[in-house]
TrEMBL record:
Taxonomic placement: Bacteria, Pseudomonadati, Pseudomonadota, Gammaproteobacteria, Pseudomonadales
TM spans (from-to): 12-37, 49-69, 81-100, 106-127, 139-161, 167-187, 207-229, 249-268, 275-293, 299-322, 334-356, 362-382
Residue stretches making up the Major facilitator superfamily (MFS) profile domain: 15-386
Keyword Membrane (UniProt): yes
UniProt KW Cell membrane keyword: yes
Location(s), subcellular: Cell membrane
A matching Pfam family: MFS_1
GO MF term (any one): transmembrane transporter activity
Protein name: MFS transporter
PANTHER family: CHLORAMPHENICOL EFFLUX PUMP RV0191, PURINE EFFLUX PUMP PBUE
Signal peptide: none
Species of origin: Pseudomonas psychrophila
Length: 401
């Protein structure tokens, strides 16, 4: 298919880091209210539980908007779509910063989430399109680095800033950051055409493409296991006497995840299947270890570090596998990934909450182990499509639009 590719044999770091900054803003915008609930509830005159729904409606916006917005913008030039998502953050974070009405704030949060849903379906394909096929995995690793940075550093920093200067100013600072990013994208990020009507592949056809469903199934099992433990990490580590060190535990996880992204960037193009198998097997082994030794401080810290290491490259590995499997339908497939990923976050929180109340935190490692073994079985089975053996084909199409 003839396209304006302008691919390069070197990583265009300025452009890729702009994509990483977009991911960073997505994550911090989503999670910022969690650390500022007392101030937000006081400012909007609602309970902390109602203030917490700012996170819920954001996730709902991503879930509901990712697929329809991705399909609706398939024909648009790619940089215009990217700028649309960033302007969305600018507008809706600004409304959140200024609003004194709870309902208006929730509406703004919903549409900020919609912007994130479109962004997540766009970033991986955009990164792939900038480079030659043999560098696509590395390019995606750089573009995804904003996520662990946001989780490990951005959220605590945002919480600290909110406590220091107020929650409204914290959201205002996010708007200023998006203004900087808009200029960055215009100057550094190359533009590409969208797909013509004849090139577009329908949602049902993409889902039926060999390999797409196995990858999405692995996304569901892996992320469900991850989010169940990550959401309830505080009660889990409390059994080892680390209830007052949750921030330190999460910092260890975040730093290990950064290292995991670096490792994945080195491996994804040559050893994608083996890297996924190794990551799942490592997480399964850590779950088994937690099942027997969750009261040991040393085991918990070591396990958290290795878990972070195995998780850091998950987004890169799974999105690379999904885009490879989907071919020309990559953007639509990646929008499905947004839906499955966010569903796993919600299901992990819900399932974990029920298990915590009904059985106790001690059952978590065994539930995780079952999910991860299911994921491993799917990867083993998808040796032809989804997670094929051998090196990624260097002749693969650069399909991200």
């Amino acid at each position: 298919m003839a396209q304006e590719q302008n691919t390069t044999e070197r990583l265009p770091m300025g452009a890729l880091l702009a994509l990483a900054m977009t991911g960073f803003i997505c994550i911090v915008t989503e999670t910022l209210p969690a650390g500022l609930l007392p101030q937000i509830s006081s400012g909007l005159e609602v309970s902390s539980a109602w203030a917490g729904q700012m996170v819920t409606v954001y996730a709902l916006g991503s879930l509901l908007a990712a697929i329809p917005l991705t399909i609706a913008t398939q024909g648009w030039r790619r940089r215009n779509v990217l700028l649309l998502t960033i302007v969305g953050f600018l507008l809706f974070n600004s409304i959140t910063a200024w609003s004194s009405d709870y309902v208006v704030t929730l509406i703004a949060r919903f549409f900020a989430g919609a912007s994130a849903g479109l962004a997540w379906s766009l970033l991986a394909g955009y990164a792939r399109r900038m480079v030659s096929p043999n560098l696509q995995g590395r390019a995606m690793a750089v573009a995804m680095v904003g996520t662990p940075i946001a989780l490990s550093l951005g959220v605590p920093l945002g919480t600290w800033l909110g406590a220091l200067v107020g929650w409204r100013t914290a959201f205002g600072l996010m708007s200023i950051l998006t203004l900087v990013l808009i200029v960055w994208v215009v100057v550094k990020v190359p533009d590409y055409p969208g797909q013509t009507a004849s090139e577009r592949i329908g949602l049902r056809q993409v889902l039926a493409t060999p390999g797409v469903r196995p990858v999405l199934a692995v996304v569901l099992t892996w992320m469900l296991a991850h989010n169940m433990l990550y959401t309830y990490i505080a009660p889990f580590v409390a059994s080892a006497g680390l209830g007052n060190e949750v921030d330190r535990v999460l910092l260890v996880f975040g730093l290990a995840a950064l290292a995991g992204i670096w490792m994945t960037g080195r491996l994804v193009d040559r050893h994608l299947r083996n890297a996924v198998l190794a990551s799942l097997a490592t997480f399964a082994a850590i779950s088994l270890l937690f099942g027997f030794f969750s009261q040991s401080v040393a085991v918990v810290y070591a396990g958290i570090f290795v878990w972070g290491l195995s998780f850091g490259g998950a987004a890169t590995l799974l999105q690379t596998a999904l885009a490879d499997a989907a071919g020309e339908g990559a953007d639509v497939a990646l929008s499905m990934n947004v839906v499955v990923w966010n569903s796993a976050i919600a299901a992990g929180a819900l399932t974990g909450g029920v298990l915590l109340d009904q059985v106790g935190v001690g059952v978590f490692p065994w539930v995780l182990l079952a999910l991860l073994l299911a994921g491993l079985w799917i990867v083993f089975s998808a040796r032809t499509h989804g997670f094929p053996k051998g090196q990624r084909q260097s002749g693969a199409a650069v399909v991200g639009h």
